[in-house]
Each structure stands twice: as structure tokens, then as C-alpha cells.
Design brief:
By secondary structure, this protein is an alpha+beta fold. The chain contains 3 helices and 4 strands. The chain has a 4-stranded mixed sheet with strand order 2-1-3-4. Strand 1, helix 1 (15-32) and strand 2 form a beta-alpha-beta unit. The protein is globular and about 30 Å long. The N and C termini lie close together (10 Å).
Length: 91
């Protein structure tokens, strides 16, 4: 089963956003190998997409598939919290 995620950041070319994207990508590769798709959405470039999805805070990380949709915000450094919040199990 392929897992799909959306990562909402403010300014994806900024230093902090690049670090967050790298951290999230590394985490997913560690836990799921290549069995995932990660979409990066810059809320500055796409505010309507963020609002449509109910994203009011960045960074926000959303599991879009498999259902049900799950969302976490803020600091993604604590792997146990991320794993629990998004129900990510090692493959």
C-alpha cells in the first residue's frame, strides 16, 4: 500500500522550510522505504489550497492516504509523536 502525505510549509525555499522538508523526507524513507509519496505545498504560493484543506498553521504534515486523513502541526523532531500522530509504522 502506497502512503501519501502533504507537507505544508511557508516559503519552501527558505532555510527552515528546506530543513523541515529534508527531515520529513528522511523520516519517511527510514520508516517506509520507497513506499510513499510526499507533496510539498507552499502556502505562500498556494494559500487557497491550504485554506481548502483547513491548514491554518505551518508546518503542517497531513497523511492523505490511506484513509482516514490525519494531521499534525509544529515540531516533527520527536519520531514517536510523529509515528503515533500519523499512524506511520515501519515497513
Amino acid at each position: 500500500m502506497k502512503h501519501e502525505y502533504a507537507l505544508y510549509v511557508a516559503g519552501k525555499n527558505g532555510t527552515m522550510s528546506r530543513k523541515i522538508i529534508a527531515c520529513v523526507t528522511e523520516y519517511l524513507k527510514k520508516r517506509l522505504g520507497n513506499g510513499f509519496k510526499l507533496n510539498i505545498i507552499d502556502v505562500i504560493d498556494n494559500p487557497e489550497t491550504a485554506l481548502k484543506e483547513g491548514i491554518l498553521v505551518t508546518p503542517s504534515w497531513v497523511r492523505t492516504s490511506p484513509a482516514p486523513k490525519k494531521k499534525i502541526v509544529g515540531n516533527f523532531c520527536l519520531e514517536a509523536n510523529v509515528s503515533r500522530g500519523l499512524d506511520i509504522l515501519s515497513s
